[in-house]
Design a protein that fits this description.
The protein is α/β, with parallel strands linked by helices. Helices cover about 30% and strands about 25% of the residues. The chain folds into two domains: about 200 residues, Vaccinia Virus protein VP39 (Rossmann fold); about 130 residues, OB fold (Dihydrolipoamide Acetyltransferase, E2P) (Beta Barrel).
Length: about 400
């Protein structure tokens, strides 16, 4: 079996038949001892921050399981009607089946054969990238800690929506843990995962993901870290830093479904989450209401919000890979904010932003290994205004 989903010890090296056969080389560090992976990621992050004058105290990296850690599968569908492949495309645009990838959480790993069988039995037409014809482009599956599933079928058009809807009882029978099923319509021929239109086919529209006792509601288009255990550690670390600093007010910019904001809510603390995606804010508000958390969530652009409002005492930012950019970095630099917690999936954009935040001193930093077997990493740090920590 390629890449067994069972939990590996932290000192071993994951083995994958797909990688060994050169069918998939996505895991560029496959075969590198995990201790070496962690050490290299920490060294890379340290080097990037030191290059812009930041010399924080580095906490021990947050480790991950080497295998069986991904809560989400994003699978390209190719092949033929009745014989789909679930995985990636090769250099010529043909399907490479990776449904037994050992990175997936065990519950997700176990679900994929049933989903492939459903696609075959329903006679869904895989999208042929070179020929630009067909319907089903991707199957995207998210797995929660309690074993529930959200399944999304990304189609080129509405032509086979009814086929999926009619066969839905078959899918639920095979995978009764499936609680949300949707169809995304993605008519354009380009390397983008999804389109604008989402059609939910089930009574439930959200997948609850409970992390550290905080229940986040994921909708089909919601972003959530793909490594639930490490994400939980990330939120706990942020909460520890913030509670130590005791700010009276907090902004969570790029808040998504509210992970940081809801973890940072506390009596006497005003917390505001800002996110441009309306669906994410709907989810965040639902979570806050259910938890009885005193957090206000606002639909809006992070930069515009920061420019238009007096700053909170502490600002949390979790931007996309491009980072904050000069406008938001300059706004935070000029603001009255005393502290900053920055979570980044790109140490290069993080370093560029820190170079513009000249009045802040980074005091602590930590690597969170969301993506074992690859060079990708999450780095989070806490910084305070010089002379005002």
């Amino acid at each position: 079996m390629p890449g067994e989903p069972a939990v590996a010890t932290l000192v071993s090296t994951m083995q994958c038949d797909y990688f060994d056969a050169r069918r998939c080389r996505s895991c560029t560090l496959m075969g590198t001892a995990y201790e070496r992976q962690l050490a290299d990621k920490q060294a890379r992050a340290r080097q990037a921050l030191e290059a812009v004058g930041a010399s924080p105290r580095w906490l021990d990296p947050q480790r991950s399981r080497e295998s069986g850690f991904r809560n989400k599968a994003k699978l390209v569908v190719a092949g033929a009607v009745g014989q789909p492949t679930f995985g990636i495309l090769d250099g010529s645009g043909r399907g490479v089946d990776l449904r037994e990838c050992g990175l997936h959480e065990p519950g997700l790993y176990a679900a994929l054969p049933h989903l492939a069988e459903f696609v075959a039995d329903t006679r869904l037409v895989p999208y042929d990238v070179p020929g630009r014809r067909g319907e089903l482009k991707y199957v995207i599956v998210t797995h929660s800690l309690i074993g529930e599933l959200m399944v999304r079928f990304v189609l080129r058009s509405i032509n086979q929506v009814q086929a999926i809807k009619s066969a839905l009882p078959q899918l639920i029978t095979a995978l009764p843990q499936t609680v949300v099923v949707s169809v995304n319509i993605h008519p354009e021929h380009k390397a983008v995962l999804e389109g604008e239109e989402e059609i939910v086919l089930t009574p439930r529209h959200t997948l609850p993901m409970t992390v550290n006792g905080v229940t986040l509601h994921l909708r089909p288009k919601s972003f959530f870290q793909t490594n639930t255990e490490v994400a939980a550690s990330l939120y706990r670390q942020a909460r520890e830093w913030v509670n130590d600093l005791q700010p009276g007010s907090v902004w969570d910019l790029y808040c998504g479904v509210g992970g940081f904001a809801l973890h940072l809510a506390a009596p006497g603390r005003a917390v505001v989450g800002v996110e441009i995606a309306p669906d994410a804010i709907v989810s965040a508000r639902q979570s806050a209401t259910e938890a009885g958390a005193d957090v206000r969530f606002v639909i809006g652009d992070a930069t515009a919000y920061a420019q238009e409002h007096p700053a909170a005492e502490l600002i949390v930012v979790n931007p996309p890979r491009r980072g904050l950019g000069p406008d938001l970095a300059a706004t935070i630099e000029r603001s009255e904010a005393r502290h900053l917690v920055y979570s980044s999936c790109n140490v290069d954009s993080l370093a560029r932003d820190l170079a513009m935040l000249e009045s802040f001193t980074v005091t602590e930093a930590r690597v969170f290994d969301m993506f074992p077997q690859t060079h990708h990493q999450e780095v989070m740090l806490v910084a305070s205004r010089k002379g005002r920590g």
